Amino acid sequence: MTEFNSAAGFDTETPDLPGWTHVYSGKVRDLYVPADDATKEMVGQDCVLVVASDRISAFDHVLSSEIPDKGRILTQLSLWWFEQLGVEHHVLASTAAAGVPAAVEGRAMICKKLDMFPVECIARGYLTGSGLAEYKESRTVCSIPLPEGLVDGSRLEEALFTPSAKADVGEHDVNITYDDVVAMVGDDIAARLSELTLKIYTRAEEIARERGIILADTKVEFGIDAATGVITLGDEVLTPDSSRFWDAATYAPGQAQPSYDKQYVRDWLTSAESGWDRSSDTPPPALPADVVARTRGRYVEAYEKLTGRTFA
After folding, report:
1. In whole angstroms, what is the distance from residue 18 CA to residue 3 CA?
2. CA dihedral sign, ordered 25, 30, 33, 39
3. What whole-number distance in Å separates Cα of residue 46 and Cα of residue 112?
4. What is d(CA 131, CA 229) in angstroms, rounded to the nearest whole number?
5. Can you say how many angstroms the Cα of residue 273 is from the centroid of all Cα atoms in its chain?
6. What is the pLDDT of residues 173-215, one digit of tens each?
7. Is this model's pTM higher than 0.85 or not?
8. Which pLDDT tens digit goes with each residue over 1-27?
């Protein structure tokens, strides 16, 4: 294992992968680039290996506990969604036969290098989370006016593009307006980002609903493919870490909805049992085994209900 300097990301441990050089670690993913001529000849020079770890983050902390198989589940779910969406995406290969190191096969993708836009592209079809908090104050979400009488979990008349600005490592992203996006990337690109984000949400919401799951909102990221100049979908897509999925059978507006994500982790960390003060500088404690198991179970359930496949 190779230790990584947190100046370029999170301070974590990453696997040594022959033929690849580790260059960055995010909260849950590690990035590598080809390190030798043999690897470059097989996969190309302008690519990056994206490896999903089993790390889990909450409240802007990377926890000391891991969720077994999380990296594989999220990678396989992202790959499935990329096949469903009909938009240009960054994945080039995902198997050992195509160049993914055998040690990380199943939780890694070889992807195009993209010049990423500094915008988190969020689509909301339901009112909850930070959108609900803003609505309670001003009857708006990202300055978009909404009608009176909406509650936690209300379905919106039409999905909204509600972007946020990427924050520094360890900080919260900040909700911004569409005009802010225009100022950052220009009129044409802002319009295309909004169009693509809502197209992805609309398609995914239909697919999820057919499987008994409500897609309340999702975050996607885009960049420019330097080789083609095309705006391209990058990062992960439509996983429980980047989206809010609810069980349609238990959906009930007017209250918080149970979700297919790390809700068990957040609930335990903010409980008296954890003994952790969220406002302090103290790192969160290790998770109990039952919280780890239940969280893994929710990730597996989301994968299996959405894809119709059994997670092995």
Report:
1. 16
2. positive
3. 7
4. 33
5. 28
6. 788 999 999 999 999 999 999 999 999 999 999 999 999 999 9
7. yes
8. 333 333 346 677 889 999 999 999 999
